[in-house]
Design a protein that fits this description.
It is built from eleven helices and no strands. By secondary structure, the protein is mostly helical. The longest helix has 34 residues.
Length: 275
């Protein structure tokens, strides 16, 4: 939002107040991150300021620990597997909702998006009782399936938003030229909606990688994820290694958000180029 050159003094004051309010909100949101990140470089052993000195000992401890590295590996494996499943199922669900109008469509959408709005503790308890009966509790497969259910709605929403700007006549043109539906999807639709699909996959990965409540219910000692290890570290033995892990998660989140923004801009360029 830009201020007009002929703005009145009152408008200029309101504009300045708006930006001041925005700055305060940003400071409030970023302050916890700014407070934690420097502690990961502390040479001391306690959470306090001022720092007694600078050191990379906690990052070294993170990457050499027999507790933290397996947790990181579990989070990566579960996150990648859940992202692959959620992206496939979510994209197919979004395409089905986009292509086929049918009675009760709003109910189907509500059911698909329920994991986004239902409290996570309710989901965790329900998944635990269901998976315990099926023998999937305390297994990596059960954790992957649970994270897939949590992540798929993000893919559905993102792909649906991308499909809203897709021109259906392109698919009809491909069909008129003799392209089978699968070929038309692969050669015509997918290249245009791939930014939305990849953005949904990034959101799905972030959802799985950061999830902790379901992991508490489903993951056994051998499937402990990084967020669960962080909570266990806080309860059992507070170590500044937790701040190093938190800083790495922040860097990962920033990288994912930057990738999503890049894909959004690319999608806009593709739509403008098509027009």
């Amino acid at each position: 939002m830009r201020l007009a050159a002929n703005a009145t003094p009152g408008q200029r004051l309101a504009y300045a107040a708006l930006w001041a309010h925005l700055a305060l909100v940003m400071i409030f949101l970023v302050a916890p991150i700014v407070a934690i990140a420097p502690l990961s470089f502390s040479s001391g052993s306690f959470l306090y300021y001022p720092l007694p000195g600078l050191s990379l000992r906690w990052y070294a401890d993170f990457f050499t620990s027999e507790f933290w590295l397996p947790a990181l590996a579990n989070s990566a494996i579960v996150g990648v597997a859940a992202t692959a499943l959620a992206t496939t199922l979510g994209t197919l669900a979004a395409l089905g909702l986009w292509l086929a109008p049918f009675p009760g469509k709003a109910i189907v959408v509500a059911v698909l998006l329920a994991p986004m709005v239902v409290p996570i503790i309710v989901v965790a308890v329900g998944v635990y009782f269901a998976f315990a009966q099926a023998g999937l509790a305390n297994t990596r497969l059960g954790l992957v399936l649970a994270h897939t259910a949590l992540a798929a709605p993000f893919v559905v929403v993102t792909v649906q938003a991308t499909l809203a700007g897709f021109d259906r006549s392109l698919m009809r043109a491909a069909a008129s030229l003799g392209a089978p539906p699968a070929t038309a999807f692969r050669r015509v639709m997918l290249p245009l909606i791939v930014p939305g699909v990849v953005s949904g996959a990034l959101f799905a990965f972030a959802t799985s990688f950061d999830e902790v409540v379901v992991a508490f219910f489903l993951a056994g000692p051998g499937q402990r994820t990084l967020p669960r290890q962080m909570f266990a570290g806080i309860n059992e033995n507070i170590s500044l290694t937790i701040t190093a892990a938190a800083s790495l998660l922040v860097i990962l989140s920033i990288a994912l958000m930057a990738a999503v923004e890049h894909l959004r801009r690319r999608g806009e360029r593709l739509r403008l180029g098509r027009r």
